[in-house]
Input
Amino acid sequence: MSAKPTLADAPQTMTVPLLDLKAQYATIKPDMDAAVHSVLDSARFIGGPEITALESEIAAYSHVKHGAGVASGTDALLLALKALGVGPGDEVVTSAYSFFASASTIALAGGTPVFCDIEPDTYNLDPVKLAACITAKTKAVVPVHLFGQCADMPAIRSLCDPLGIKVLEDAAQAIGSEWQGRRAGTMGVGACFSFFPSKNLGGIGDGGMVVSDDDAFIDKVRLLREHGARPKYHHHLLGQNSRLDALQAAVLRVKLRHLEAWHAGRQKNAALYRELLAGTNVGLPLARPEARHIYNQFVIRTPQRDALKQALTDAGIGTEIYYPRPLHLQECFGALGNKAGDFPVSEAAAAETLALPIYPELTGEQIAYVSAKIHAFLGSR
Output
């Protein structure tokens, strides 16, 4: 096989999973196993040095002062919103096209989600449409750095800052991503990360973190994650149990050392997809020149999405639809009064987008096989 795979290198048949965590584990097994056994030997399962070390290391990686480990990316958003004081009567603007937690956490904090449509090429919140979403009740804006690429934070901040509206980055899919050289977590009051196993930096279960330069904000997040108690049994706030386990922290510390190489692997795979899929009737993801895209997902687009997904499934290729129903059309948000047609760009994305395998251990031969099957199904322009 040539050093740079071509469509001609694609085999007739093979299996390509959407994600292969076993392949990743094989590359770091000794260090992973040692980290797990170190925690087991210590019997320090809650809190302790693994947690504080990971918080410091993630904060340094994100170019901020503080990190607060929590139980999940969803809890990161929820506790951050509570730390900002979001409650009944407050509106929080977020994207109409994202994972459910981007909006559910607003409601769970007591606020009202207000949806904004997205840019048709990046799938991130559209700053041009944001102004119409802001009212006197707007407490915060939560732009989502979707699929591993930052939203246009300077444009968003230029609207929010004069009004005193806090901007919280939903960076669940975007640890290490950048906009104009500024890393996710440095462009708002803070950022929320997810360590769900499928993320670029994934644990062996659920986990999340809030990062920030704001001392008071991160202190409140830390208080809220421990039942609002300081010291133990003395409760100042109505908090909850949302601690990151030491076992997760130990594993994530091992993986963090490889994260930049894994980002580079995903970027290399994305470049090969772009080359091999050039000339097909499929829309490729836009990587903005201002952004450092880390490709948590590689999302293509076609009106024949559902049929293409089935064809790829039949060929042994794993794919995923992120997300088949936009947030404003979810049943649980029906009381907000949104209807089909209100956010047409989000609705079109939900109907036409498909994520391909992009994990860093993916081989050139596998990418050639996926690309060849897409060519065969969609044909050339």
